Amino acid sequence: MYNPDNQYRCTIIRGKSQSEMEDLLPFYAQTVHKICPCKKKEFDIRCNDILSDFFYHISTFSELPNDNQKTVRNHITEIMGKLLGLYFTNEEGLICESTNCIHLNQHHDYPTFFKSICYNLQFPNAASNTNFMTQHMKNGINIKPLCYVVCLLEYARLNGNLLLTKQEIGYYALNNFEVLQGKVSEKEVYEQIKYDRDNKIRKNKLYGSHDWQHIKEMFNLLNLSNLCLSDKDYIWLNKDESKAIDIFLNYKENPTFDIYKYNINEQKEIEQLKLDWQFYYSSMFSEISKIETQFTANVNDQKKEIRQRGSVGITTVELGDQGESLVYKMEKERVRKYKERLVNKVLLLGKTKGLGYDISSIEADENPQNPEFARYIEVKSTTRITKPSFDNNWTDSINLTAKEWVAAKQYREYYNIYRVYFTREETIIIRIQNPFKMYEEGEIEVFPTIYQMDFNNSAITKQYFPMK
């Protein structure tokens, strides 16, 4: 018997705001990539010092005050490890970069990374305190909560185009005992919400950190995955993500990871459970990894009309080509405004191998003393939900090939990296001029394995706003 008032909490690790999560994600991922695989002791020491330097500009972790040390450890163990699953411990005791982390570093598609996190999340899990995990298992909790939310939202869309509030989903589903046990279908929840609405039956509001924080964290993950759109009160499915949504709709009702096969009364079993969970949760779900992110042209349209899902908007199936095409058109327009006859000097060369850059352009209006001097442009694109903050704690990373780094060294002040951010709200382009000089002066870091470049807001030469 489904009783919506039978409330029960299953918490998840507390993260950051959506913008902070995406600003920190490349830093987290590249930190893991730099130092893994390694023994746990080495991992802790190197992570501690890297994060101490990043957040507090103190390169030695032991020199931090106790409160700051706790904050650094929380970033490493709770957010990077348990929430984001960027690393796992293998059977030999080595800390390894997860497939989620590898996919993120290679493809720079943040929402796809979060889709995998959303799909893998289940209750109970071994990321929570052992006492909580044991309690949830004894109470028969058994659900993939975010798959369930996707199914509930789709059922609501197909059966009356009903927009559900975050409060309703939180109270009737994510915080309900029978739902969390896997005993209540999305149809039952939807019909109960509709019945209570029609009869003006009001439920207690989830309020404050104790009632609301864990629900808010799950909604944040759904938004960061681009599966859902939301405003202050409502949340709904993103029709541009139809392929990914179908994967979530077709999930088996029982969670993928069978936590109940472990004997929680034996310490060795609990330790094995934690290792197995870490590996499972941090692994990129293969079907999701094949689906690149899509953004809608107008988010508000989807709230006004929950339409038949289709495939519209900006796609990132060919993310690199899109970025190059966008910068090429922008450069042509910039040069045309300066002098029409010079437009033919802007060339798209991304398919030409061995050059180390994608576009050949000229300085034009941005160097009036030498307007016809060459400008060599390498375009690097990524997909994320929120706009980069570019604040003092903001950082980013890109991968450069050997050819590209040789070109940066050869052309120096004539070589530029244009970083393109495709976000849900707008497309943002920043320019980094003469990265090799910045590397020599210690302004940016470059690691010769794949010529990784880490930079922050001080490295931005100029920000562009391309014409829509």
Work out the radius of gyration: 24 Å
Oligomer: single chain
Enumerate the spans where pLDDT stays under 50 for 5 or more consecutive residues.
306-317
Strand order of the largest sheet: 9-10-11-13-14-17
Main sheet: strands, sense, barrel: 6 strands, mixed
- Helix amount, in percent? 40-55%
SSE layout and pairing:
Layout: H1 18-35, E1 38-39, H2 40-56, H3 66-83, E2 87-89, E3 94-97, H4 99-107, H5 110-120, H6 130-138, H7 145-158, E4 164-165, H8 166-174, H9 177-180, H10 186-198, H11 208-224, E5 228-230, E6 234-237, H12 242-249, H13 267-281, H14 286-289, E7 294-295, H15 299-304, E8 314-315, H16 319-338, E9 347-348, E10 359-362, E11 374-383, E12 396-399, H17 402-411, E13 415-422, E14 427-433, H18 435-440, E15 445-447, E16 452-455, E17 462-464
Helix pairs in contact: 1-4, 2-3, 4-5, 5-11, 7-10
